[in-house]
UniProtKB/TrEMBL annotation:
This is Signal recognition particle 54 kDa protein. The gene is LOC115737494. It comes from Rhodamnia argentea. The NG domain, also named G domain, is a special guanosine triphosphatase (GTPase) domain, which binds GTP and forms a guanosine 5'-triphosphate (GTP)-dependent complex with a homologous NG domain in the SRP receptor subunit SRPRA. The two NG domains undergo cooperative rearrangements upon their assembly, which culminate in the reciprocal activation of the GTPase activity of one another. SRP receptor compaction upon binding with cargo-loaded SRP and GTPase rearrangement drive SRP-mediated cotranslational protein translocation into the ER. The M domain binds the 7SL RNA in presence of SRP19 and binds the signal sequence of presecretory proteins. Component of a signal recognition particle (SRP) complex that consists of a 7SL RNA molecule of 300 nucleotides and six protein subunits: SRP72, SRP68, SRP54, SRP19, SRP14 and SRP9. Component of the signal recognition particle (SRP) complex, a ribonucleoprotein complex that mediates the cotranslational targeting of secretory and membrane proteins to the endoplasmic reticulum (ER). As part of the SRP complex, associates with the SRP receptor (SR) component SRPRA to target secretory proteins to the endoplasmic reticulum membrane. Binds to the signal sequence of presecretory proteins when they emerge from the ribosomes. Displays basal GTPase activity, and stimulates reciprocal GTPase activation of the SR subunit SRPRA. It is found in: Cytoplasm; Endoplasmic reticulum. The keyword Zinc does not apply.
Amino acid sequence: MVLAQLGGTITRAIQQMSNATIIDEKVLNECLNEINRALLNADVQFQLVRNMQNNIKRIVNIDDLAAGHNKRRIIQQAIFNELCNMLDPGKPSFTPKKGKTSVIMFVGLQGSGKTTTCTKYAYYHQKKGWKPALVCADTFRAGAFDQLKQNATKAKIPFYGSYTESDPVKIAVEGVDTFKKENCDLIIVDTSGRHKQEAALFEEMRQVSEATKPDLIVFVMDSSIGQAAFDQAQAFKQSVPVGAVIVTKMDGHAKGGGALSAVAATKSPVIFIGTGEHMDEFEVFDVKPFVSRLLGMGDWSGFMDKIHEVVPKDQQPELLQKLSEGNFTLRIMYEQFQNILKMGPIGQGQEKESQAKIKRYMTMMDSMTNEELDSSNPKIMNDSRIMRIARGSGRQVREVMEMLEEYKRLAKIWSKMKGLKIPTRGDMNMRSRNMNAQHMSRVLPPQMLKQIGGMGGLQNLMKQMGSGKDMMGMFGGGES
Ligand SMILES: Nc1nc2c(ncn2[C@@H]2O[C@H](COP(=O)(O)OP(=O)(O)OP(=O)(O)O)[C@@H](O)[C@H]2O)c(=O)[nH]1
């Protein structure tokens, strides 16, 4: 995903700026210009980028920066907030309720992935115990009904459509009525994405919308359409009251910035993103984790980095010993995953998705040999091993590679623990006091403190990890 590049460029720009000895207006401008270029390259609309720059300049007080405060954090925070604001229209979209009938109409240009997305949306809810149903109101494209029928059959979702009826309004109304009678709680209406004339397409959408009175209209947009995103989204919004956006094909080479433009144009939030052609390649979209990821601040990563919190106390010394030797193996990662899953279902949304991901990763690791699991050298994972693991676990090569990337990322974080002197009992007594970063900094070996990024880095790390108490747990402080 090119989005990762965008995140990288932004992070580098901030890094470069914070390396400068004196931060003045000029240095800040250079940094913001670099960020602007990155955003424009990622297809974010020009006006949005401009507004963002102005807002950041208003928020960031150059004198504060010059006074030696943590410049990087101040600017990163301002950028984070601005990107979140861009993606957050300020009001949530209509959220259907299980057991209560809702009609959701999908609109979008042909090829945007609308039909696929309708099925993914239905399937996502079906898995959670809803009773969804699909209505094909696209009578323009021959084959549209067949496509929907095929998808729906595969997912065992009831569907409605017609090979002979040419009036989309009639089909939509009949379909919605039928499924209301059948007590379906999520009636999804797929509409046409093309017409001989654009005006006719929008007119048809208006009529379907008026006749079926949907609770929510979802605009589906292909993330690879680039700078055209804003205008396209706006055109739809002007015709029907779009209330939410789903951005598709985020797995490809799309730059993703179009998502920001679509939100701005429709004043509606992105609710899901499509990340592949398969039915389950569909993710709930949360603004903050998305932007964190964009800026390399971690969301899923944040979740993962907390794994120490779930290490049972009796295993902590052993784990710590291994880590202090610099051996973060795939087996250790596997064991930590088991600990996380033992905690049972936690929370909703992002965290739930993370758990599903962990399960996928574990299935892949189940297809690994002992040698692979116990090696701390990622280089042994050559192509043929990766392919074997993918075959063995029924997952795609790309997924195995993603899992290995995650392992490498974690190994890098944990490698900071290498050479760590395990605190003595005397140090441990400090736990009884209210542990804070100051205390921690005295307990830690100076070399390690430096690696973490000094006091500032330590404070951040502690915040990320929850509390000083947990942190001590991680460093071998058992309850005894
Ligand atoms: N890689 C990837 N492909 C997707 C995604 N969503 C949809 N597609 C593919 O995009 C193509 C177009 O999707 P459709 O669902 O047929 O498009 P549509 O917008 O419904 O088109 P009409 O029914 O003609 O309006 C298909 O090949 C889908 O498999 C996604 O998130 N990622």
